[in-house]
Specification:
2 copies of one chain form a homodimer. Chain A is elongated and about 95 Å long. The first copy, chain A, has about 300 residues and is mainly alpha-helical. Helix content of chain A is about 60%, strand content about 10%. In chain A, helix 8 runs antiparallel to helix 11, helix 9 packs antiparallel against helix 10 and helix 10 runs antiparallel to helix 11. In chain A, strand 2 and strand 3 form a beta hairpin. Chains A and B meet through helix 1, helix 4, helix 5, helix 6 and helix 7 of A and helix 1, helix 4, helix 5, helix 6 and helix 7 of B.
Chain lengths: ~300, ~300
């Protein structure tokens, strides 16, 4: 004989009533709405919905919040391994959890160790500790780009104007890659994109990169021909490097978050800071090799 | 005499009952919980709460969602200018709105025009259109950094090793600034930070920058002394430039989103891509000027 969980004024929500047996096992759910609209002689056992969506105590809070949001539930019962009702998560908890998870994602995407405290309540020491590890890791990785520049020192000193295009090329590469990775990371978080979308994402990013790359490349070609009259080879070098950089950056930015997911890493790690570091080295290699070929340095 | 809004099976929610008068003006709210727990002879006029939280039809959907989340409401009445009840927003709508607004924030933070369509359903042409404007704007802004490098061409060709530290300095500056701006942008979105926190944020960022800057700077100093034995001036130049770059980057990254808010701009614009572009130019100026002074180029 199912018993009815008592509810009252002190309960946070009374709109989902969970039906349990004597050993507290969850049998079903009946909403107050169903109760109110039911006939007077109906019994709870008939009214209740036995296919209850529930979470177990060991489940991730994010998963619980996502279930609440997905099925438009007001509350979600929490059961133990033996399917005994041990608690309820309500929709207002879910909003807090979702907000908190998004904040965490954003912090990771900004190369910061996530902190649960609000910004203003976090001490300077704590903030510095959360940030220094990634700053150090990325700074050391950036030495690869420095090494590439060192290798091409002769070319750069022979034609110093080449140096002036470096920030534009590496930054545009970083921006192009970050655009792609951010959209894919968010898509993965919202479950709009999954691992099986690897090739659709890659082909989309290649398409977008060809369009954006062409426009940016053409702009540079024309600008350089105007600023350095007749220097078509320089214009072609920078324009060509720009096109290849955008293509590389968007391909890497698009697929790295998916690859991270595949290997059970947080895709949010594959955001702007890491993408920028990888793309920097790549764009310098592309640019300086094209320069060496075209300008016979 | 107040009348009771009829509710029933076809309604999305029946747990908040809004009390209106004959001209549909909103008088109060009574929850089903209160009704169920009330004495049988209680009248609705006594049970209802007359201080109803409501939104008007012209209000931003984000504001409505935030009110629902803030006050842990299941539903929020929507009224017209004459306080007549015209609709209800429910908590599940609010979750969708909050998710959508976060996605929009992230897209803007990645220098992309926000799109309401999921990534995989957006055409290549549309994605390219959303991205090209910011890529172009930032690329043109990056020419400032190119110009700075051009001005210091003599110094760079006289001591080419200087070139190899550029990616590390500009990228670390960009990363340091993005960390700060992302945390402040998110704090502003969650209303944890407001315009009046300008100075607390600035002083916190300066503190964090001094700690992080010191560690990164010391690391570089030691590394350079080891790799280029005895070249203390080069080590001091790079170390000093690193410290100043991190200090500048974190100050700018921390306060720009607040300044944007003050001028009614979206703080999310002041994210990684724009910060990186500004910080790049700043860090090159710092680095090359210190180099000129220390290394008497």
């Amino acid at each position: 004989m199912p018993t009815f969980v008592p509810n009252g004024e002190d309960r946070e929500t009374i709109y989902s009533c969970y039906v349990i047996d004597k050993s507290h096992k969850l049998l079903g759910v009946v909403s107050v709405k169903d109760l109110l609209l039911a006939k007077d002689d109906a019994i709870v056992g008939d009214l209740m919905d036995t296919s209850v969506i529930s979470v177990t105590t060991v489940e991730d809070q994010e998963e619980a919040a996502r279930l609440l949001a997905k099925y438009d539930l007001l509350a979600l019962p929490v059961v133990d391994k033996e399917n005994r009702l041990v608690g309820i998560i309500t929709i207002d908890d879910a909003i807090d959890v979702l907000n908190q998870e998004t904040t965490e994602d954003m912090q990771i995407m900004a190369a910061t160790k996530p902190s649960e405290e609000p910004y203003l309540k976090t001490s300077v020491m704590e903030l510095a500790k959360n940030r220094i590890v990634w700053l150090m890791v990325l700074m050391i990785s950036d030495m690869v780009s420095g090494g590439i520049l060192g290798t091409f020192e002769d070319a750069l000193t022979a034609l110093p104007v080449l140096i002036t295009f470096i920030p534009m090329l590496t930054d545009t590469g970083g921006n192009a890659g970050s655009q792609s990775s951010t959209l894919v990371i968010r898509g993965l978080a919202l479950k709009e994109i999954s691992i099986k979308d690897f090739f659709p994402v890659l082909s989309k990013e290649i398409g977008v990169a060809m369009l954006c790359g062409f426009v940016l490349s053409l702009f540079n070609f024309i600008r350089i021909v105007i600023v350095y009259p007749g220097n078509y080879l320089l214009a072609a070098t920078v324009g060509g490097a720009m096109f290849c950089t955008v293509l590389m950056a968007k391909s890497i930015g698009g697929v790295l978050p998916i690859i991270a997911t595949r290997f059970n890493m947080d895709p949010a790690l594959m955001a702007s800071p890491l993408i920028t570091t990888i793309v920097d080295a790549g764009s310098l290699l592309i640019y300086l090799n094209i320069a060496k070929m075209c300008l016979t340095l």
